[in-house]
Structures are given as structure tokens and as C-alpha cells.
Write a structure and sequence with these properties.
Blueprint lengths: L1 H11 L4 H17 L3 H14 L3 H17 L3 H15 L4 H18 L2 H18 L5 H13 L3 H17 L5
Helix pairs in contact: 1-2, 2-3, 2-4, 3-4, 4-5, 4-6, 5-6, 6-7, 6-8, 7-8, 8-9
């Protein structure tokens, strides 16, 4: 909560718009982690209203999507995340894949098979350009997405790579 207030104050006194928005997003995330979801959502929505920068917008939408998911609205979370991923896919394929991976989690909570399949298909499509095979989490989720889409042969290398990367990772890093 102290960090959230510090980030919020820093944002308030920052004259440069992009830095102000980045600090507002940091404040929102800290408020969310401190259990102040309503304040976090207010700040994220304020950041979204203020920034034309597509990468800052993606960061804000990703945070908003996670907040929507964990407050119990997975359908809105999935919609927010997939829409932002599709807007961003040409500019930053990696970030678009990360958004879609989070959307895949949200789609499972919707309990609607067609949403899970659709989200998995989007993630499978974004995985190659995003370099998913170099990130254990993204590689595992891409393998899961391909499995959901019944593309088992395509899923196998992603799943094996995720295990390989996870085995080499330092759990204390």
C-alpha cells in the first residue's frame, strides 16, 4: 500500500505524459497487490484514457484483464486481453502472445468450449513470431493451446522445450 501511494504521488507530479502513465500503471498494480482493487481499476482506466502509446496501453490492458479475471469476470477479461493482443500482434508479437496466454486462463474459467478453442487458436498462431520456444511459461501454454486444438504433433516440441527451459531455470532468480 505504501508503494502504491508512492507510485501514485510520483505519477501526479510527473510532467512527461508517457512517464506519468507508466507510473500510474505501476501504482495501479501496487494497489491491486495491496488488495485495493477498486482504486487499481480507477487508475488503470485513467491511464488508458490518457495514453496513445500502444505499448503502455497494452500494459494497462493486461493489468485490467488480470484484475477482471480475479474479481470474477473471466469473459470480460478474455475479451479485453484478446482484443488488445490482436491490436498489438504486428507491433510486438511477444507482448501479444503474453496477453493471449493470460486470456487462455480466463477462457477456461468461462466454461465455454468455443472460447477456449478460439483463444487457443489465437495463441497457437502468435507463438512462432513471439519466440515462444525461448520462454518456459509461454512455451508450455502454447503446447497446451495446440493440444486443445488437437494439434498434438505441433504441441510436442513446445511442451518438451518448456520442460527443458524449466529444468535449467534458477528457482531463486
Amino acid at each position: 500500500a505504501v508503494a502504491a501511494r508512492a507510485h501514485e504521488r510520483a505519477a501526479q507530479i510527473t510532467p512527461a505524459p508517457e512517464r506519468r502513465v507508466a507510473r500510474t500503471i505501476a501504482a495501479a498494480e501496487a494497489f491491486w497487490l495491496a488488495g485495493r482493487g477498486s482504486r487499481a481499476e480507477e487508475l488503470v482506466r485513467a491511464a488508458l484514457a490518457e495514453t496513445p502509446d500502444p505499448l503502455l496501453r497494452a500494459d494497462a490492458e493486461h493489468l485490467l484483464g488480470r484484475m477482471l479475471l480475479w474479481r470474477g469476470d473471466p469473459a470480460a477479461a478474455r475479451e479485453t486481453l484478446v482484443a488488445e493482443a490482436l491490436r498489438l500482434e504486428r507491433m510486438d508479437p511477444r507482448r501479444a502472445a503474453d496477453l493471449t496466454a493470460t486470456a487462455l486462463h480466463a477462457s477456461w474459467f468461462c466454461l465455454r468450449r468455443e472460447l477456449v478453442l478460439d483463444t487457443a487458436a489465437v495463441l497457437a498462431r502468435l507463438a512462432g513470431p513471439a519466440g515462444a520456444k525461448e520462454d518456459a511459461r509461454l512455451s508450455a501454454l502454447t503446447g497446451a493451446a495446440l493440444t486443445i486444438c488437437e494439434r498434438l504433433e505441433a504441441a510436442e516440441p513446445y511442451l518438451r522445450r518448456s520442460i527443458e527451459l524449466a529444468e535449467r531455470a534458477d528457482p531463486f532468480a
